[in-house]
Amino acid sequence: MTYCVGIKIAGGLIGLSDGRITSGTQLSSARKVTMMGSGGDRFFIMNSGLRSVRDKTLAYLRRDMQRRRGESYATMLDAVGAFTQCLRQVAEEDKVSLEASKLHFNLHAIIGGQLAEDTEPTMYLVYPEGNWIEVDERTPYLSIGATAYGKPILDRALKYDTDLQTALKIAYLSFDSTRVSTSDVGFPIDMVTYQSHERTWRQSNFDYDDLMEQRQWWNRNITDLARRMPDGPWVETLVPDAQRRKGEP
Q1: How far is CA 24 from CA 28, 61, 184, in A?
Q2: Which tens digits make up the pLDDT trace of 210-221?
Q3: Residue pLDDT, tens place only, 134-157
Q4: Distance of CA 136 to the CA centre of its chain
Q5: Peptide bond into 188 cis (omega under 30)
Q6: Angle at 182 between CA 179 and CA 184, to 5 degrees
Q7: Which residue in 3, 72, 200, 213 is deepest, having the highest Cβ count within 10 Å?
Q8: Per-residue pLDDT, 24
Q9: Do the Cβ atoms of 236 and 247 come closer than 8 Å?
C-alpha cells in the first residue's frame, strides 16, 4: 500500500508521496514520485500499485520521450495520453500473466505539471484501465493508495485559494493521519512544489525525525481542541458528573 496526494491551488501544485514499501513482513523504502522532462518542461508522476508495472510503464514513457529527440509534449493532456498508451501496452503484455499469478494489475497514477502550451498547471488521476479524471477547483486534490484516512482533513481544510504554505501543512497532515492509521504507509516522504508565477519546480524529502516538531505540535493541539470544544447534548445524560462539576464554585 502507499499514500500519494496531489494538490492544485491558485498558487500552483503540490505532490506528496510516502516512501514505505511492504513485501510480506519486509519493509523498505523507495521513491514513488518521478520528475519527467527537463528544464521548464517538466511534470511529476506519482504511483500506487505493483512496482514492476510502474517501472515498466515509466521505462516505456521515457523511451517515447527520447524518440522525440529533445522535444517535450506540448501540453499535459499530451503527456497523459502518452502515459496511458504506455500503460495499456504494459497491460497487453503482462496483465494475463500477472492475474494468473494472483497479482492485480492495479497501477494508479497522479500526473501534474504545466507544459509549454498549457495556460495553467493541472493534474490528472489515471486508472489501471488507462482512463483518467482531471482535478477540479471544487475538490482541489487527487489521492491514491490508502486514501480514506487523509481525506477528511483535505475535505475540511483545503480550498482552491489556500496559500501554498498552508496547503503544504494540510498535505503533510493528510499523510500523518494515514501513517497513524495504517502500517503500510510511512516515512520517508517526498514532496514537490510548482509555483505558477515562477514556473519553478522544487523537491525535497523528509524522514521521521525531520518532522518531529510538527507531529508533536499536532498531537498536542488536536487533543487540546477536543477538550475546548463546546459540550454536546450528550453530556447531560451520558456524563452528568461533568455538568455538576462545571457548576461547582
Answers
A1: 11, 30, 11
A2: 999 999 999 999
A3: 999 999 999 999 999 999 999 999
A4: 15
A5: yes
A6: 90
A7: 3
A8: 53
A9: no
Residue 185: name the closest of 52, 22, 6, 46 by CA: 22
The alpha carbon of residue 2 and the mean position of all alpha carbons in its chain are separated, in whole angstroms, by 9
Calpha distance 160→190 (Å, rounded): 22
Return the C-alpha cell found at 190: 517526498
Amino acid at site 200? T
Give me 66's grid cell. 527520447
Q: Dump pLDDT digits (tens) for 98-140.
A: 999 999 999 999 999 999 999 999 999 999 999 999 999 999 9
Question: What single-letter amino acid sits at 188?
Answer: P
The 10 Å CB-count burial string (b at 16+, else e) for 170-208 is bbbbbbbbbbeebebbbbbbbbbbbebeeeebeeebbee
